[in-house]
Amino acid sequence: MDKKSCKYHRHARQEEFFLILQGTATLRYDGEEYPVKKGDFVAKPAGKQHAHQFINSGVEILKILDVGLNVANDITYYPDEGVYYLPDEEKVFSKQGELKEWTSEPNE
After folding, report:
1. Which is nearest to 42 in space by CA: 23, 16, 78?
2. Residue 100 carries which DSSP code?
3. What are the beta bridge partners of residue 37?
């Protein structure tokens, strides 16, 4: 299937945890790849800025419980694209300046 849960990204302040409810996936985490399956639990601590993404590597639908804090002044960075997202301001930037047409949708 190779569908992605999100674009590879990291948060400056948000803490998250993930529980795999169904399926199998590859977890991209800080430049490494790890297999995960139903029942696996992954914690991403706040302030560590761990880049992460799940890629469905199985044949069935991947279901993930994703729980995270809604933290003010968080900044999301997408290292594959060199893009920063400021959710409080709903603005997206790269080194070239503000981006108007960028999307966080990983499977387009």
Report:
1. 16
2. S
3. 24
